[in-house]
Design brief:
Oligomer: heterodimer
CATH architecture of chain B: Alpha-Beta Barrel
Strand content of chain A: 15-25%
Largest sheet of chain B: 8 strands, parallel, barrel
Number of strands of chain A: 14
Radius of gyration of chain B: 17 Å
Number of helices of chain B: 12
Shape of chain A: globular
Order of helices and strands of chain A: EEHHEHEHEHEHHEHEHHEHEHEEHEHHEH
Largest interface: A-B, 41 and 42 residues
CATH topology of chain B: TIM Barrel
Structural class of chain B: alpha/beta
Largest sheet of chain A: 6 strands, mixed
Helix content of chain B: 40-55%
Strand order of the largest sheet of chain B: 1-2-3-4-5-6-7-8
Distance between the termini of chain A: 50 Å
Number of domains of chain B: 1
CATH superfamily of chain B: Aldolase class I
CATH class of chain B: Alpha Beta
Bound molecules: pyridoxal-5'-phosphate
Chain lengths: 394, 257
């Protein structure tokens, strides 16, 4: 079987035009990932620019309110640009620069990955173009302007369902058009090898920090880790360091949209089947002829019909569990965390918070949950207001 | 000698592409028959996919029209079987890996053979992943066409060494679509292929005019034209037949000049 497999999943299902580019990327990644200078430079950027380490915050009021397991929030929302996406982007853009690329392109759903990419490109002096579905440029208008402020060109994608999946399609097309000077900064642990491995490695700092922090604060490992799953990068970033720790439950929260018994959701594990798309073998929402399904979620960042191949494998092995959280539950959790802890989570992250609200009361008081607060919710305020029937202007 | 080899042995080939089911499978059936009559040597039939990542806007739109019209892989096989009652024109199916994988790779190849398909072209299955398809292609006598592109470089020889049927030489970077200028390193790409293997090389991506086709045919064994044909289908819809026929005739003439 080809390279980059997680069990049967992963691989490199991409057009021939891109094969040398991904091979070159893989070689560069292997060369630099253990290179002392590269590591030092990245670590310096992560700390002094990205704001790492992120806090592991004991959510005391939430814990009391739910009256069950102790809840800790891994505060990726406090990173520069407001989400975990910057962890991956700093790594990839630095690598692209070392490879002699002068231009980066990226897809974005919620706009967080686009903003992070535009930010790193500004910092490192690279040209930057971002592809974003029309539906998302509408619902995340603030992030579009933010990317433009950072000097990026934003392309509105009007093909297909005009969401994240189509933004990925368009970025791949652009990469085949202009591959020599351009690096595609993929935003999650998906796509062809080496992306799932490389992005996971860059994100795994979340779990490494969290493990050290929880051992310092509690002197023991947590009982459960909870994170939202779009492509799966913030979840795998948190999970990876704990995979060998069998006592730690790994729980990914997918977008249940209007419910997994409706056709308006993006819960790939709950409703998808094995397929091959966007460069990888994994689970996808699709029909019996392999046509990719139009998916739906209130959250632009989770509105994706697939999931990273490493998650597919953890699912099959029974090592991780995946649950679906509906729009309603996520919005309710968005408001809950805002009022109770004074922390406005990204609507993506609110999916994980919503599940913790169900999980914590069923656990004992000595038990510990770490939930990944993958991003902050400023970008979602207007959309949530609209969801509640309040028309506000951004 | 298999049909594809024989086709290229008879002279420079003109290979038009259409998306099956655009605007309807009835028109597709007529298009295949009439293009063959007008001189098409091999016809590439696209199975529409929801997310054709290697396609430019023209073929993307064709895929969307075909899917909206209710086209499915099963209905396409049924259409091809009807074609085969009257025509032996060589046929290649072009689609992405997911429609094949999800349908069932073996079932796909069984049905392809029963329908009389000669080859499959799967743009998102590169050399490194072809083992997933190849055993089934071999078992059911379907040729798996390899693609090479301007970025293939050192890979050309590796790919060519194991190529079957013909080598699909992608003329330029990027996705399908009509272009003003065709990359000029195709000639070199073909030379590298032939150094390793005596196999026909057909050039595709971007070709539109008879002049471009004639120029390519000077050194290529065949010329593949997709977007330009699909654009005619788009423009005339159900009335496209005479227009496509006229275009195919002109292009074939240019290729055989
Ligand atoms: C804040 C936030 N969390 C999560 C995601 C989902 O991505 P992933 O599953 O790769 O973490 C996104 C994507 O846009 C996001 O912006």
């Amino acid at each position: 079987m080809s390279k980059g497999r997680f069990g049967i999943y992963g691989g490199q299902y991409i057009p021939e035009t891109l094969m040398n580019a991904v091979t070159e990327l893989e070689e560069a990644y292997h060369r630099f990932k253990d290179d002392r200078e590269f590591k030092a430079e990245l670590s310096e950027l992560q700390q002094n620019y990205g704001g790492r380490p992120s806090l592991l915050y004991y959510a005391e009021k939430m814990t009391k309110d739910l009256d069950g397991a102790k809840i800790y929030l891994k505060r990726e929302d406090l990173n520069h640009t407001g989400s975990h996406k910057i962890n991956n982007v700093l790594g990839q853009v630095l690598l692209a620069k070392r490879m002699g690329k002068t231009r980066v392109i990226a897809e974005t759903g919620a706009g967080q990955h686009g903003v992070a990419t535009a930010t790193a490109a500004a910092l490192m002096g690279m040209e930057c173009e971002i592809y974003m579905g029309k539906e998302d440029t509408d619902r995340q208008a603030l992030n579009v302007y933010r990317m433009e402020l950072l000097g990026a060109k934003v392309h509105t994608v009007t093909s297909g369902t005009q969401t994240l999946k189509d933004a990925v399609n368009e970025t791949m097309r652009e990469w085949t058009r202009r591959v020599r000077d351009t690096h595609y900064v993929l935003g999650s642990i998906m796509g062809p090898h080496p992306f799932p491995t490389m992005v996971r490695d860059f994100q795994s700092i979340i779990g490494r920090e969290a493990k050290q922090q929880i051992l310092e604060q509690e002197g023991r490992l947590p009982d459960a880790l909870v994170a939202c799953v779009g492509g799966g990068s913030n979840a795998m970033g948190l999970f990876y360091e704990f995979i060998e720790d069998q006592s730690v439950r790994l729980i990914g929260c997918e977008a249940g949209g209007q419910g997994i018994d409706t056709d308006k959701n993006a819960a790939t594990m709950a409703t998808g089947t094995v397929g091959i798309f966007h460069g990888m073998k994994s689970y996808f929402c699709q029909d019996r002829y392999g046509q990719i399904a139009p998916v739906y979620s209130i959250s632009a960042g989770l509105d994706y019909p697939g999931i990273g191949p490493e998650h597919a494998n953890l699912n099959d092995l029974g090592r991780a569990e995946y649950v679906a959280v509906t729009d309603d539950e996520a919005v309710e959790a968005f408001e809950y965390l805002s009022r109770l802890e004074g922390i406005i989570p990204a609507i993506e992250s609110a999916h994980a918070v919503a599940y913790v609200k169900k999980l914590a009361p069923s656990m004992a008081k000595e038990q510990i949950i770490i939930v990944n607060l993958s991003g902050r919710g400023d970008k979602d305020v207007a959309a949530i207001a609209r969801y509640r029937g309040v028309e506000i202007y951004e | 000698m298999n049909k594809i080899k024989q086709t290229f042995a008879e002279g420079k080939a003109f290979v038009p592409f259409i998306t099956a089911g655009d605007p309807s499978l009835e028109i597709t059936e007529q298009l295949v028959l009439q293009m063959a009559e007008a001189g098409a040597d091999l016809i590439e039939l696209g199975i529409p996919f929801s997310d054709p990542v290697a396609e430019g806007t023209v073929i993307q739109a064709a895929d969307a029209r075909a899917l909206a019209a209710g086209t499915t892989t099963d209905k396409i096989f049924a259409t091809i079987q009807r074609v085969r009652r009257v025509s032996q024109v060589p046929l290649a199916l072009m689609t992405y890996m997911n429609p094949i994988f999800t349908y069932g790779i073996e079932k796909f190849m069984v049905n392809s053979r029963e329908a009389g398909i000669d080859a499959v072209i799967v743009p998102d299955v590169p050399f490194e992943e072809k083992e997933e398809l190849l055993p089934f292609c071999t078992k059911y006598g379907i040729e798996l066409i390899s693609m090479i592109t301007p970025t293939s470089k050192q890979r050309i020889k590796i790919i060519a060494a194991e190529a079957q049927g013909f080598v699909y030489c992608v003329s330029s970077l990027g996705v399908t679509g009509v272009r003003q200028e065709i990359g000029n390193n195709v000639r070199e790409m073909i030379r590298l292929v032939k150094e390793v293997k005596d196999i026909p090389c057909a050039v595709g991506f971007g070709i539109n005019t008879p002049e471009q086709a004639a120029e390519m045919a000077e050194f290529a064994d065949g010329v593949i034209v997709g977007s330009a044909v699909v654009r005619i289908v788009e423009q005339y819809g159900a009335d496209c037949l005479p227009h496509v026929v006229e275009y195919v005739r002109k292009m074939k003439e240019a290729v055989r000049r």
